[in-house]
Amino acid sequence: MNRYEFENLISDYLDGSIPFKKRKEFEDYMKDDKDAEDLVSNIKTTISEMNNSQKVKVADNFNEKLLSRVKNEGIVSKPNNTILGFTPFYASILSCLCVAFFVVTSQLINVSQDSSSEIKTNQYTAELEQNNPSYSKSVDLEKKLIVDSNIDSLQDKKEKEKPNNSNKIKFVNY
Amino acid sequence: MMNQTSSISSIIPLDKAGNNYVYSDEQLMARFQKGDENAYIELVNRYRDRLLNFVYNYIGDFEISEDIVQDTMVKLYQKKHYYREIAKFSTWLYTIAKNLANTEFRKKKQRKITLLSQISRDDKPYDIPADQPDTDQEIQSDITNRIIRKAIDELPEKFKTVILLRDIQELPYEEISSIIEVPIGTVKSRINRARLQLQVELKHLRT
User: Fold this and answer.
1) What does CATH list as the number for B130-207?
2) Which 3 state secondary structure label does DSSP give A77?
3) Per-residue pLDDT at B6
4) CB pair distance less than 8 Å for A53 and B189
5) How far apart are CA B72 and CA B69, in angstroms?
6) C-alpha A160 chain-centroid distance
7) Distances in Å between the alpha carbon of B186 and those of B126, B176, B182?
8) For chain A, what are the domain ranges?
9) A56 → closest Cβ in B53, B148, B167
10) Which of A101, A144, B31, B189 is packed most tightly, with the most Cβ within 10 A?
11) Could you check whether B1-127 and B130-207 share the same CATH topology?
């Protein structure tokens, strides 16, 4: 046992809560070191002096003074109503957060389900294409038709977006 | 309201030996919460001196300490519905007193800094308002008490609180841990370090 360990165990030794093996080591250390023994003895003396130190008592009119104070300012305050330990304000904030969390989570789950079903569809079409070449041709044709229709609709849109100048005033030089 | 303070303590029965309370603090508090104001007086009687000793050793001024104990008891009255029986009543009350004493201690410290020059001229940190000791032994014991109190006062705040609660108030480690809101292991180590530091301060007393 070194000095540091010894000092750490002083209170445990005085309380009698030190394990038997350590107690033996502790006492051996004290036997070898007079200073250590004096330190423990001094601490013991100080504790008993503190225990027996002069106790102060309240003044005789303490209760009278207290009761008149209680009479004047002793308004009993009751604890606020709480919901699971939270005040109504914090409980409402917490419930809002919970609802928001569930909404966001459910949306995230939907998105992941959509993407997984898309992957499954792609895998299925790829398999179909491999097994049935006519299917791939028909799919190509469909895709071409879709592209053509998209181009047509884009052209229509551009035409619609062209400025119509028919209503503008024309200036003519005579 | 409460006007028969002298007859109240007789209403609360004691056991045959007359030193153990029939009603525990927690039972009295439950009665007080239901409106029994005699139970409040009994609680005040049980704790006023204990709290005064704790606060007085902490602050070092009798009058301020008595005011703090009064404030603690007023708070006990006002906040009675806040007490739940999950904690020991004494822990709850000591926590209130400790917090009030802490606030006062900090104020005092602040004043001490600003009025340092005046205080050094008239440095009387402990003015014990008790009877003067008669015999030589009593005088010696009084001097030792003053020196120990001064040494405790020199300790850092966290050591001071634990040493007062343990070695003067003789509270168990668990209760101290609840009052100062630190783990029991920390309480034990602080007490040990406080006792060692106290010996350094009291070196001249023992030689």
Assistant:
1) 1.10.10.10
2) coil
3) 42
4) no
5) 5
6) 54
7) 29, 10, 6
8) 3-51, 88-160
9) B53
10) B31
11) no
Q: How far apart are CA A9 and CA B125, in angstroms?
A: 33
Look at residue B164 in the predicted model and tell me its pLDDT: 92
Q: Give the per-residue pLDDT at A146.
A: 75
DSSP reduced 3-state for B170: coil
ipTM of predicted assembly, 2 dp: 0.73
What pLDDT sits at residue B95?
93
Q: What is the pLDDT of residue B127?
A: 52
- Domain B1-127: which topology? Rna Polymerase Sigma Factor; Chain: A (1.10.1740)
Q: Would you tell me which residues 127-186 of chain B have a C-beta closer than 8 angstroms to some C-beta of chain A?
A: 128-130, 141-142, 144-145, 148-149, 163, 167-168, 170
Q: Say which amino acid occupies B177.
A: S
Q: pLDDT value at position B109?
A: 75
- With a cut of 60, say whether residue B2 has pLDDT above it: no
How far apart are the C-alpha atoms of B157 and A172, rounded to whole Å?
Answer: 99
Q: Chain A contact for B191, CB < 8 A?
A: yes
Query: What's the pLDDT tens digit per position in B127-173?
Result: 555 555 567 777 777 788 888 888 898 899 899 999 999 998 889 99
CB contact under 8 A, B142 and A64: no
Q: Where in chain B are the domains?
A: 1-127, 130-207
Distance from CA of A113 to the nearest CA of B (A): 49
Q: Does A82 touch chain B (CB under 8 A)?
A: no
For A44, the closest chain B residue by CA position comes to B195
Give the model confidence (pLDDT) of B35-92 as tens digits.
898 999 999 999 999 999 999 988 888 999 999 999 999 999 998 888 887 788 999 9
d(CA A69, CA A65) in angstroms, rounded, equals 6
Q: Which of B189, B188, B156 is nearest to B172 (CA)?
A: B188
Residue B5: C-alpha distances to residues A17, B1, B2, B37, B197 (Å): 44, 11, 7, 10, 44
Residues 10-39 of chain B with CB under 8 A from chain A are none
